Amino acid sequence: MSSMLDTLFEALSVISEGSHIYLCDLKRDYSRWSKNAIQYFGLPGEYMHNAGDIWSQHIHPDDRGEYTRSIAAIFSGSADSHDLMYRARIRDGSYVMCSCKGVVIRDEAGIPIFFGGTIRNHTVLSYTDAITGLRSLYGLMEDIGVMKSREMPYTIIMIGMNHFSTINDNYGFSFGNDTLSCFGKLLEDRLGNYGKLYKMDGTKYALLSWAVSAEEIADVYAKIKKEAAHGLCVDGEKIILSVNGGLVYVDDFNLSRDTILSCLKYTYYQSKKFKTGELEIFSDHLGDGGRRYIEMLNIIRNSVVNDCSGFFLCYQPIIDAGSEGAKGMEALIRWRNHDFGVVPPGKFIPILEQDPIFPELGSWILRRAVSDSMKFVERYPDFLIHVNISYAQLERREFIPELKNILDEFSFPPENLCIELTERCRLLDMGLLKRLFRDLREIGVKIALDDFGTGFSSIGIIRELEFDSIKVDREFVKNIDVSTTDQKTVHFISNLADTFQAEVCVEGVENDRIRRVLGNYEVKSFQGNYYSEPITLEEFTKKYLPDDN
């Protein structure tokens, strides 16, 4: 096995120029690391036992929790890859920003045998974007840390372009790079005097400012948006650009960098999807409690790192429209804290979805829901547990292997699990979605489209993807007893679902009037407070498995 370790290590070295290499024999917890890593970071030697523990002591205390949790998942066999960014201590005691990526190699029986990958030290060159010459995301992360250590309030604005792929398709990638450079130059000219400008991922840029107010930057953004809409001259071509912008003001120095960036991404995508590019300021929709809200988000994020402490699941029954008995239940996440009380998912999921740590929470929800529902499935073979899955989970290549591992862990019948997707899944490539649906079908898992009708692409989604059920959003039924428009809408949706051989579940059944009207349509199941609000597992068990109490 040692010769195999060295052979694989040499193979990694050939294709990983410029990075530090590591490879671990998982069975013996015996690793080989690059000589340059040993020298640069001051590690004990090229070959090490328990290298994960040794390396963890070189990671900055603020970043260590995520690393420890990720490594534990690798060694337990519940994760197949590792992709983190953290600060690591070098020989002289200072810290450098590193990105660490690794994959698990399994044997023919599927047992993990090796874990190997690269650690890239983001030196001064890495802090500069090659196309625009601006400081990169890593530079922004470092400078946020400086502002935090100096306890200096600051504002960050993220600005990006729409439909950039069209420019690449029409003019070529070289022209696309020139467009990025010209747009960066425009931002430098308009914003350069207000702070530091950075090139983020894709077509996005960011400005960190400590000298002017958020209102002043917002005024400049409005002028940039107008100027871009009138056209940017690139290589003699006039290119019309639409832009989006999100802004966050930070004066709480206990917040982590990841929380700040998640809030920034959230505001940016709100601007893009709902405000046609008008600047979204994070505090605008929070009222006087804005600062306390960000504090709560920071604590919630730390709770995910700390083994999802404070999180718990409630369950709402899904009722058979004919028998009016429970045919399944939906798992709904909640978070509880001494200072903030019980917090519903709408308060934190949309922002946490922007955070790289979110899939950890998603895996915790799935594992807990499967475990909790086992006794119902054993009693009622057709009982379904519905679990909401975010697009942020679906885009990870580890999602399907993790799902299989969870099902195997509890010997859970895959046909008793229903994955619920919202229309936000349209953010993913359709080819990726079709492959995911194919993989889920092969496993035997059912798929539902949640909140049908709340987005503009609902019909397009169900034409392209095969759903087992469609859940009608509560907005379409709350006035159905008096609204002929709502009645016609539900009638249309039920006929549409039947065309695509999908069942219909109606959410928001809050009273007997709604229930009686829905009896006139091809609706297979109901969900709503008329039958039960979301309740704890103990309460659900007392109500629907009375013999077990």
Report on this model:
The chain has three domains: 2-121, Beta-Lactamase (2-Layer Sandwich); 135-285, Reverse transcriptase/Diguanylate cyclase domain (Alpha-Beta Plaits), CATH 3.30.70; 306-548, TIM Barrel, CATH 3.20.20.450. The chain starts with a helix and ends in a 5-residue tail after the last helix. 41% of the residues lie in helices and 24% in strands. The strands form four sheets. The chain has an eight-stranded mixed beta barrel with strand order 15-16-18-19-20-21-22-23, surrounded by five helices. Strands 3-2-1-6-5-4 form a six-stranded antiparallel sheet, with helices on both faces. The chain has a six-stranded mixed sheet with strand order 7-9-10-8-13-14, with helices on both faces. With 549 residues, it is of the alpha/beta class. The longest helix is centred in the C-terminal third of the chain and has 22 residues, at 358-379.
Q: Indicate the CATH topology of the largest domain.
A: TIM Barrel
What distance lies between the first and last C-alpha atoms, to the nearest angstrom? Answer: 53 Å
Under CATH, the homologous superfamily of the largest domain reads: EAL domain
Radius of gyration: 26 Å
Major beta sheet, specifics?
Answer: 8 strands, mixed, barrel
Secondary-structure class: alpha/beta
Helix content percent band: 40-55%
Low-confidence stretches: none
Q: What's the overall geometry?
A: globular
- Helix run count: 19
- Structurally, the number of domains stands at 3
Q: What number is the mean pLDDT?
A: 87
Q: Can you tell me the CATH class of the largest domain?
A: Alpha Beta
Level-2 CATH architecture of the largest domain? Alpha-Beta Barrel
Oligomer: single chain
